[in-house]
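Still learning. Any example?
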Amino acid sequence: MFIKTPEKMAVANGVDSETKRVLILGDNYAGSSIIKALSNSSLEVHVVHPHAPSTSAEGITYHTCDLNKSLTSLFQTVTPDLIISTASGGSFEAQKRIIESAIEARIPRFVPAEFGHDSLNKKIQNRLPPSRERARTIEYLQQQAKDGRVEWVAVATGTTLDRGLLSGTLGFDLKWESATLHGKGHERFPAGSSPWIGRVVLAVIEHWQDVKNQYIYASGMTISANEIVASLEHETGKTFEVGRADIGECVSEGERRLQQGFPDAGMFLLERSVLYDEYMNAVRPFREDDAKKLLGLAPESLHDIIHGVLHDEQHHGGRPSCGCD
């Protein structure tokens, strides 16, 4: 779905005047990023967790609720102008249940759990089953919007680079200064930092009338594995040992692990293969339909992300976005 630019509406205090109260669903890194970004705005922010959080952000109202049950009563109590889901993105039935509850409670706006790969890419859908589920959610939202029951915006942000580097899921080992690259290393893919997700969501709220009822692409940057290696070497002053592997091996090993009952291990290999496999053409819409300018966002800096990743690796046990200097 291509970006279009309808007439803009007035915004108040930097936020779309029709959105004053926001409800965020999910206890995960995407949700945390969005909470942090929105907590610094003029919005009234509510968060739904399956259990009481150990720490809470100032000015945020938390609600403990089972996300697997109907949320209509909670939605009717909070009466948000917008619901942002970061939970159960890979399950169409779970997302549909949330959307149905939102519509029943007459919540006018909804952002589904995306914030990653392009779920509309058929090749990605074939390789990553959760992307097929997300695509079904988009189709369902399109139909509900056509019937005038809800407005929606879905956002693909690419891979979360800092988390991928710190966890090793992108093939980099920071401790041992090494990397295993699938493909030739020059293949470009969309990426951004963990905080980027929150900044994009806040920008979507601010520009809702420009992007409503659309699937948009807003990565912090497009990069290659070779560029990541070069940036790591520049920042550390060390030479990384780089090994090469075939994309097909990555895919077959990921599928084998899924068949053996190791879904997490299998999925991270398949997700990695999408980044480095030019056959997927996964970067194209992030280049051709880049929404950053429309959203008023500047690109992220690879150097800044690498600097932060190395800081977190060296001083905070590999936990991303510690927030210190």
Summary: Confidence is low (pLDDT under 50) at residues 1-13. Residues 129-146 form the longest helix (18 residues). The chain has two domains: 18-158+193-217, 160-190+221-280+298-310.
